[in-house]
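Journal club side-thread
Mid-discussion, someone asked how the predicted structure for our own chain would compare to the paper's figures. Pasting it here so we can look after the session.
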Amino acid sequence: MSEPNNTSCNHDCDNCSSKQNGSCSGPSEEDLRLADTLAKIRHKLVVLSGKGGVGKTTVAVNLAMALALEGRKVGLLDVDVHGPSVPTMLGVKGARCESDGERILPVQVAGVRVISVDFFLEDTDSAVIWKGPMKYGVIKQFVSEVDWGELDDLVVDCPPGTGDEPLAICQMLQEGDTSAVIVTTPQEVAAADVRKSIDFCRKLSLPVAGVIENMSGFVCPHCGEITHIFKQGGGEALAAKMNVPFLGKIPIDPQVCEGADIGHPIMHYYGNTPTARAFISAIQPIMEKD
C-alpha cells in the first residue's frame, strides 16, 4: 500500500485530491481510479452506530454473508482503522493481501471480498495512531487501489460515532446508490445516540436504508425460547419516530458470540437458526431495490 495522499480538500470538488497552488487542476489519477471503482459497484451499504458495544461489526459481517448467500457478488470494507474486528470474526486475522502488480487484491472469505487495515499491519496487536488526514488517505486507497471487481453490494463497517472514518467514507461513496444501515440495541441510552447517527446521515444527504435492533432478546441454547432481558422495541420505536425503515430484530445468540471469537459467522456456519433467518429478513428490503 502506497503512502496516502494527505492533501486537505476544501474547494468545490468534494473529493478531489489534485488541488495545487490554490487552484484545482482537475481530477488526479487517484480520483479517476476511485470513480472507475465505484462505477463497478451497484449498491453501497454503510453500517453505522451511534455508540460502541451494540454489535455493529457482527451485523456488518453477517449482512455481507447473507447477501453473498443470496448469490450476490459482495465486498466487505472495514474502515475501523483503530479497532478492526472484521478479520477476527471471519477467521482471517493476520492474513496478508497480494497484488496483481497494479491493484491490491482483497482477501476472499466464503465468496466475500474483504479489506481491512489489519491485513497491512506487521503486528496486528499494535495500536494504530493516525490523525484524520492519514486515515482519510488510507480509506481512499482501500476503495481506489483495491481490485474489488464487479460488485452487487459493498458493505462498509465503520467505527461507532460520527467522526473521521464515517465522514470520509460517506463522502467518498455519495455518488450512486449508497445508503446507511444503523445498528442499535433496545435500551434508550443506545437509541439516543442513534438519533445522532440519523441526523449525521441527513446532513450528508445519505439515505437511511433502515435501523436494525441488535441484542433484541436472548435465545435459549436449550429450547430456543427468546427472553427479553433488556427492554423491548427501542429500535423499532426509534425508527418510527425518526421516519426511517425498521429492518428487524437480531436476538442475543450464544452461537453469534462463539462464532465471532473463532471466525465462524453465524450466517455461514449456523444458517438454519432464528438469528440467521433474522439477518435474511433484514436484507430483503435492501435487495428489493434492484
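Post-session note: The CA atoms of residues 96 and 133 lie 24 Å apart.
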